[in-house]
UniProtKB/TrEMBL annotation:
InterPro entries per record: ImuA, P-loop_NTPase
Protein name: DNA repair protein
Organism in which the protein naturally occurs: Halovulum marinum
Ranges for region Disordered: 225-269
Length: 269
């Protein structure tokens, strides 16, 4: 089995790139410098939410990237969702996408019956040169989405110029063919000067866990849906407790225990 997988990977060799890759600039000096000018448009990238409750923030980052991509001549997106991810994540809300700066009419949503069909749909979509991007939303670390499958998606992206994004919910780090892997965590929203009474602008902590040249980093990032631009978010600091600090109790823990992850009964295979 290992020899067969190795032979398959050899057949799926990327080969040399012709010319310089087109890049999607985030507009932030730190991440853009680490990425050599931005995300490669004709490549595979992964956005990861370690816990189910973080899928909203991860989806928000993907929506922000798509809003920037769709400003170009190829403005359509294929969004494929593994059915195992739906119980926790739910369906995309058109109004929410519009408020995030992404035209819901630019999306074609695919809800296949199983993960195998989802991989097929994403693979076919990545060949379509009329698309700006393909999003594959999966749950956990399914065996079907292995190094061979991700290498195939990477080759499709390289050949067609379509960005392919893996949106991984409740998933751990794993080796694959993605050029970059991002961990996304929600942060408190800073106030929006144009609407002080509102809930503020979306704010995330982005952690670059993997890149092709081995560089990494972490940034607090705010997304402005009206301008469709990223800005550096406020520095997060722990607030000091007012009044004297009480001694730790001797008969019980001095802080609440970590909350367990809420999961559904279905498991990705």
């Amino acid at each position: 089995m290992e020899m067969h997988a190795a032979a398959t990977l050899d057949r799926l060799s990327l080969g040399p790139r012709k010319g310089r890759a087109a890049r999607l600039r985030l507009g932030l000096p730190g991440p853009d410098a680490v990425l050599g000018g931005g995300l490669e448009r004709d490549g595979l990238h992964e956005v990861r939410a370690p816990l189910a409750r973080g899928i909203g923030a991860a989806t928000g980052l993907v929506a922000a990237l798509l809003a920037q991509l769709c400003r170009g001549p190829r403005g359509r997106v294929l969004w494929v969702t593994d059915p195992a991810a739906l119980p926790d994540a739910g369906l995309l809300c058109p109004d929410g996408l519009a408020q995030y700066g992404l035209d819901p009419g630019a999306l074609t949503l695919v809800h296949p019956v199983d993960l195998k069909s989802a991989l097929w749909a994403a693979d076919e979509g990545a060949r379509c040169t009329d698309l700006a991007a393909v999003v594959l939303h999966v749950k956990g670390n399914p065996k079907l989405l292995d190094r061979v499958a991700t290498r195939r998606l990477m080759i499709r992206a390289r050949d067609s110029g379509v960005m392919v994004l893996i949106l991984r919910q409740s998933g751990a780090e794993e080796a694959n063919a993605a050029l970059t892997r991002w961990r996304v965590e929600p942060l408190p929203s800073p106030p929006d000067a144009s609407f002080p009474e509102g809930i503020g602008l979306p704010c995330h902590r982005l952690v670059l866990e993997r890149s092709r040249d081995g560089r990494s980093g972490a940034w607090s990032v705010t997304w402005n849906p009206k301008r469709k631009t990223f800005t550096h978010g406020p520095r997060q600091t722990e607030q000091e407790v007012s009044g004297p600090r009480l001694p730790a109790p001797a008969h019980r823990p001095d802080r609440p225990g970590a909350l367990g992850q809420v999961v559904d009964l279905r498991r990705a295979t």
